[in-house]
Amino acid sequence: MLNPADTAFLETLAAALPDGTIGAVEPRYLADPRGRVGGHAGGVARPRSVAEVSQVIAACHAARVGVVPFGGGTGLVLGQVMDGGPMPLVLSLERMRAVRSVHPSENVVVVEAGATLAEVQAAADSVGRLFPLSLASQGTARIGGNLATNAGGANVLRYGNARDLCLGLEAVLPDGSIWHGLKRLRKDNTGYDLRNLLVGSEGTLGVITAASLKLAPIPAAMGTAFMVVPSPAAALELLALAQAQLGGLVSAFELIAKMGLAFLAEKMPEQRQPFAEAPDWMVLIDVGLPDGLDPQQALAAVFEAGAEAGLVLDGVIAQSQAQRAEFWALRENIPEANRRIGAISSHDISLPLGEVAGFITDAGPALAGLGDWRINCFGHLGDGNLHYNVFPMPGEARAQHENSRAAIKTLVHDMAHARGGSVSAEHGIGRLKVDDLEKYGDPAKLAAMRAIKSALDPHGIMNPGAVLRAAR
Ligand SMILES: Cc1cc2nc3c(=O)[nH]c(=O)nc-3n(C[C@H](O)[C@H](O)[C@H](O)COP(=O)(O)OP(=O)(O)OC[C@H]3O[C@@H](n4cnc5c(N)ncnc54)[C@H](O)[C@@H]3O)c2cc1C
What we know:
This protein is an alpha+beta fold. It is 33% helix and 20% strand.
């Protein structure tokens, strides 16, 4: 059983650390971006170095006090929001945001966990390199949080997710020991892979304090287009066509539905829409090409071949970098428009590419059996990752449908699972999907996860109740 981070514990800890390291809990440390629940905590630690993080964790380990690691607070599955149990200590990495070193010749950057994703991108850009992880939350989300959640985003198709971009980590383990794993190696087969265990562990196995990350060359020219497709199945055929023409140079391939455009028109009318009449389905395609290739020509060739094959009905290719940014803003504002409408239930699922179209065809009618809804299905189609979100009909509030939420979620998740999919593609498990992990997770994998958790964190202090149910 854990103890609360009470006044006596906080005062002792504060006395052992530099002034101002332990502070009061501001509301921002307890807020869920989707406003579903509020968290609680006894205090906040804001250390400035890995040594101070180690001191904090060692004290929590000794006193059996829970710790909730906190990055930018943009996580969508309540991993950073603990809303029950003994008051934990929030440990924020916001004061550890230094770029420790940049190695352009190695295509590597070493950064502290509290740097925002946008700051990591800027550090790469300053030496003529690209850090390709890209999320709508990148101005606030921190790289430690991105790694702890194994974030995905728009460019996974070409460059992989956060895990694929991580070469090494520095981390504090649940007993306060420091793991110095900041290697810059592409090959390192020296036993169990602690880096891959910590990436995606959502703060349950330790605190990531720094990371060495892979960089990529900046493409000489980028191009972006919206293409109207007759169906999600046609969109996937268009992806295959684009990849056949351009190889691995397609960076992003995003699906957008008519409902997403309608929500934008309603809640964010200042967003300029690309087509006079909103199409049922369209894709946003991003390509990044080497010197000598023209992205507009390349996209025009994809459009022509797609139109000839009946896969594209209409399209518009960005004519400038400003227009590219405008196209992307439209896609990246869909989650905000969704938030303003208010989803009854949001789902971050992934499917084998061959199952995506069938899922979309079947899920709508299946959900109609539960009631009348508006469905906004969008996402990173190239990765088989759909954000399949269910909303009330116009004039209704989501609160009217509280009783339907569980049935909607079960239906969507059962259907994704039956097709070989995942009930958490890129957001993680947090506290929101603990039941889902227990229901859909492989029993042998779950048993191994529990064994790892109790071996590394025998008192269960690290992010109690996230990913795995807290021991009673
Ligand atoms: C508008 C919007 C768009 C988004 N788009 C995407 C998207 O396209 N793709 C995607 O994958 N996600 C997306 N997200 C979700 C979110 O931004 C990511 O999950 C992000 O990686 C979380 O980073 P953070 O720093 O905000 O972490 P937090 O929210 O602070 O924490 C998330 C989890 O990581 C743990 N954690 C944080 N820092 C550390 C650390 N240093 N060491 C150990 N554990 C830690 C926390 O305890 C918690 O469990 C989006 C969110 C919003 C609000």
